[in-house]
Every structure is written in structure tokens, then in C-alpha cells.
Design a protein that fits this description.
The complex is a heterodimer of chains A (362) and B (120).
Chain A lengths: L4 E5 L11 E7 L2 E8 L19 H6 L6 H16 L5 H29 L3 H22 L8 E2 L2 E2 L5 H27 L1 H7 L7 H6 L4 H5 L31 H25 L18 E8 L2 E9 L5 E7 L1 H13 L7 H7 L4 H5 L1
Antiparallel strand pairs in A: 1-2, 2-3, 4-5, 6-7, 7-8
Helix pairs in contact in A: 2-3, 3-4, 3-9, 3-11, 4-5, 5-9
Chain B lengths: L1 H12 L23 E4 L9 H5 L5 E4 L4 E4 L9 H5 L5 E4 L12 E4 L3 H6 L1
The chains are: A alpha+beta (362), B alpha+beta (120).
Bound molecules: iron/sulfur cluster (2 copies).
Chain lengths: 362, 120
């Protein structure tokens, strides 16, 4: 055994789109311990709730994260709606879920591309991002924005998708399917992918529960937890929803869970588009949250469960807004997966939790 | 074996229409629903100031006395709140891409006084 050395990893590193710093305690080529440090992109967005009214804050909430922008505006709007007892029209709920699932598709495609890039599969990276671009084009056509959509408002949504546009959306998704299946088969059957991912960063089911992991990271260790299965909003109208689980617990299982979740999201979008009810897309929201009123909410973001809490003070500005994001939940799991791994596998393991540091630090 | 399947797809891409456009010679057409940028039809504006109050970024400044309506496009985040709140529907989001800016500026518009014009 060699002497223990500390290797700093990040905040600037090619696999990290966002700044995360890790002190890797290494003996020979094995990582013994990883000590994470965050705090490079803290922007104080939660504090801004005191100077923006509850309608304006939705555009701040959206900017917490570029990839789950839709999810954060949705989660925030739902929290304020339950704070004020607002009932959202059915059609708005459907539209929200459709956009949210589309953002899951684009988030997972982005991740699959990044993961492929991390293990040196450049052409796979290109193909994943090429398909992701089609989803962004759908966003641009239906909401007017590619990343920051600004379609959710307290009380509903601001844009409708008419039948002709919905048919185009479905046609685009069908167009992706053929290429996506090929990409997925490659990821799941290719030996070079397996060499880099099977048995890497293993976390058992018991540890996953003990470390309170969430999202695809937990589901790859067979933790049966997906907020969508609570059946709230339009999710309640799905004929059948079962979280995608895998008991592998390693990086390969995480790739697999995310691959299959893309297919699942596309199925959800198609089912909801077929069942779309007619009617209004928004209700007028008047007044302000009552003094001392509290509400909390959970939402399944592409990276896992995100928790929202809001408290009113009788004015248009909220007293407090708090979020707990999936990555902050998963950091403990990540450090535990890193302990004992090879130095060369560190970037793969960090990527498989799909870290979103901007969300975590807000 | 998976990589050979993907290889087929990659090889096939050689003969397909490229996914990208030759920017800046070509550019993508803007979709009809694009958020674009805010334009104000000043002939309708009554300088009520609602847009200024609604804007989450304080991008709009309405000066009633000087009869001007100004927008700082570098603050605007294209959320569309002002366009939805305007009682005269004079604000719209023009669905076009704007050229890249080379300097910061504020667009100030003079709002004509319709009543005074009618009285004359
Ligand atoms: S809300 Fe409309 S009418 Fe009022 S000041 Fe703004 S642009 Fe003019
Ligand atoms: S679009 Fe939004 S940010 Fe831009 S001026 Fe209007 S309210 Fe302000």
C-alpha cells in the first residue's frame, strides 16, 4: 500500500458542466474517501422571494436550473396554488405534465450524451445531442423558448397546444424513436460500455435507503420511489404507471434506468395527448397567501424528488420559499459510491448521479 | 456488437441532410410562437404603468410626465408578463431573432398624446 495522497478534483473539470470540488483521498490508484465541497455558484435565489411577488418569482424559480427549468416553475406554482387553495383546470395540468415529461426526455438525452462522452464514446454523444435538439425544437415551437420556457403561471399555463401542434409533437417523438432505440441498444449491449460501467460505483438497496437517495440513482438500486406514482395532477389519469427499477446498483443500472425512462416519458406524453380534455388553461388568481399559511409539495424532477416549501405573510411576497433538490439528496450516495473505486472511474461515478450543482446551491 | 449498429447510423449520416445550418450564411426560420422580443405600439399606449409594475426584472420604465416608455432589453427575460398585463394590448412579443448586440442600450419611445391631438 502506498501513502495516502489528496488529489483535488474540480471545480473545473471536463466531465463537470457545473462547479463541484472533491478532495479525493487516494492510495495507489484507489480512492479511499471523497470529500465534496460546494458553494461556487450560490446566487441567493431563495432570498429573492422577499422582493418579488409570488407571480414574478416563478421566473426566478425557473432559473434555478437550466435543465429542470420547467420542473422548478411547475413545482413552485403547485406549491403556491396549494398555499392559496387554487384549483387548476384539467387541461392545464395535462399540458404541464406533457412539457415536464418532454424536459425529462431532453434531460436524460443530455445526460446519456455526457455519459457516453465521459467513457470516450464521442459519436454516441453527438447522436444523443442530435436527438435532444429535436425536443428543444418542440419546446421552441410550443412555448417560444428552448430552455427557459416561461409557460407555467400560478393558476395554469400561458399557452395552449392545439391539436395540429400536438400531432406535430407526437410525430417528432415518433421520428426520434427509431434512432433512439438504436442508441439505447448500443448503450445496453455494447461491451466497451459494459467494461466501463458494470460493477462500477455499486450501491446496495440497503445503502440506497440509508443514504436517502432519490431519482434514477436510487431506482437503479431497486428503491421503489417515484413521486409520479402518487398520481397527482395528470399523472393520476395514466392507465398504468410503474417506476422503472433495476437491482444492479452500479453505473450500468443507472444508464439502463435512464434509457428506459426516456421511453416511459414518451409513452406518458402520447397517452396524455390522446386523452387531453378540452377547456380552459388557466384560472384567475386574486389576492395573496394568508399570513402564516404553509404549503409543501414534491415533484419528480429528471434527477429525482424535489421538495418545495412556502410560507405566506398576508402580502403578495412570500415569507419564505425553500427547496430541497435531488442532487443535494444524492451527494451522500455519490461520496459513498466513490469510496473504494478506481481513480479512472471517478468521473463516470460522479456523472451517474447526474449532478446539478446550480440546483443544489440556488 | 452494439457499436456496429451505431456505426451504421453514423455512416448513414454522411448521406443525409445535415442537422445543422451553415450559420451565418443560413439561419433557422423563427417559429411563429417564438418569445422573441417585446415591441410597444405606442399609438395605443396610455402610459398606465402596469407593465412596469408587473415586470419581474424592472426592465420597463414609464415616465408619465415626459410621455416616454422605455425598455432595457438587457434586463428583459422575455417572460411575457407585461404583454399579458397590458390593458390596451399594445405590447406584443415579436417572434423574430434579433442581431447580436455590440453595445448596451435602452430603447426609449415617445408616446404621442392622442387626446391632445384630438382636441386640436
Ligand atoms: S401596460 Fe400597456 S398601456 Fe400601460 S404603460 Fe404599459 S404598454 Fe402602455
Ligand atoms: S417580457 Fe417580462 S422581463 Fe421582459 S419587459 Fe416584459 S415583464 Fe419585463
Amino acid at each position: 500500500m502506498g501513502k495516502a495522497t489528496v488529489i483535488p478534483f474540480g471545480p473545473q473539470h471536463p466531465v463537470l458542466p457545473e462547479p463541484l470540488h472533491l478532495d479525493l483521498v487516494v492510495e495507489d490508484e484507489t480512492v479511499i474517501e471523497a470529500v465534496p465541497q460546494i458553494g461556487f455558484v450560490h446566487r441567493g435565489l431563495e432570498k429573492l422571494v422577499e422582493t418579488r411577488d409570488y407571480n414574478q418569482f416563478i421566473y426566478v424559480a425557473e432559473r434555478i436550473c437550466g435543465i429542470c427549468a420547467m420542473g422548478h416553475s411547475l413545482g413552485y406554482a403547485e406549491t403556491v396554488e396549494s398555499l392559496m387553495g387554487v384549483e387548476v383546470p384539467k387541461r392545464a395540468e395535462y399540458l404541464r405534465v406533457i412539457w415536464h415529461e418532454l424536459s425529462r426526455v431532453h434531460s436524460h438525452l443530455l445526460w446519456l450524451g455526457l455519459a457516453a462522452d465521459a467513457f470516450g464514446f464521442e459519436s454516441m454523444f453527438m447522436h444523443c445531442w442530435r436527438l435532444r435538439e429535436r425536443v428543444l425544437d418542440i419546446f421552441e415551437k410550443t412555448t417560444g423558448g428552448r430552455v427557459i420556457l416561461s409557460v407555467v403561471k400560478v393558476g395554469g399555463v400561458v399557452r395552449d397546444i392545439d391539436d395540429a401542434m400536438m400531432a406535430q409533437v407526437i410525430a417528432t417523438l415518433d421520428g426520434i424513436m427509431d434512432d433512439y432505440t438504436k442508441i439505447m441498444n448500443t448503450l445496453l449491449t455494447d461491451t466497451s460500455v459494459k467494461n466501463r460501467t458494470v460493477d462500477v460505483g455499486y450501491i446496495s438497496h440497503k445503502d440506497a435507503l440509508a443514504l436517502s437517495m432519490v431519482g434514477p440513482f436510487a431506482r437503479a438500486s431497486a428503491v421503489n420511489y417515484d413521486v409520479r406514482s402518487f398520481g397527482r395532477g395528470a399523472y393520476g389519469d395514466l392507465a398504468d404507471f410503474r417506476p422503472i427499477l433495476d437491482d444492479g446498483g452500479d453505473c450500468f443500472a443507472r444508464v439502463k434506468v435512464r434509457c428506459l425512462e426516456v421511453l416511459q416519458s414518451i409513452e406518458i406524453i402520447k397517452e396524455l395527448a390522446a386523452k387531453m380534455p378540452a377547456g380552459d388553461i388557466e384560472v384567475a388568481v386574486k389576492g395573496a397567501p394568508a399570513d402564516g399559511a404553509q404549503a409543501s409539495n414534491v415533484l419528480e424532477q429528471p434527477r429525482g424528488e424535489c421538495y418545495y416549501y412556502a410560507r405566506g405573510n398576508g402580502t403578495k411576497n412570500l415569507e419564505r420559499m425553500r427547496m430541497r433538490t435531488p442532487t443535494s439528496q444524492n451527494l451522500a450516495g455519490m461520496t459513498s459510491a466513490l469510496a473504494g473505486c478506481d481513480l479512472a472511474d471517478v468521473n463516470m461515478i460522479i456523472l451517474t448521479i447526474d449532478p446539478c450543482i446550480s440546483c443544489t446551491e440556488r | 456488437m452494439g457499436s456496429f449498429k451505431l456505426g451504421g447510423m453514423t455512416f448513414g449520416s454522411l448521406f443525409k441532410k445535415p442537422e445543422t445550418v451553415l450559420y451565418p450564411v443560413e439561419s433557422k426560420p423563427a417559429p411563429a410562437g417564438l418569445k422573441g422580443h417585446i415591441v410597444n405600439d405606442v399609438s395605443l399606449c396610455i402610459l398606465c404603468g402596469i407593465c412596469q409594475k408587473t415586470c419581474p426584472c424592472h426592465a420597463i420604465t414609464v415616465e408619465k410626465k415626459a410621455r416616454t416608455w422605455a425598455i432595457d432589453p438587457f434586463r428583459c427575460v422575455q417572460c411575457g408578463s407585461c404583454a399579458r398585463a397590458c390593458p390596451k394590448a399594445c405590447l406584443t412579443m415579436e417572434p423574430t431573432y434579433t442581431p447580436v448586440a455590440t453595445a448596451e442600450y435602452v430603447t426609449t419611445l415617445e408616446v404621442p398624446d392622442q387626446k391632445a391631438a384630438a382636441a386640436e
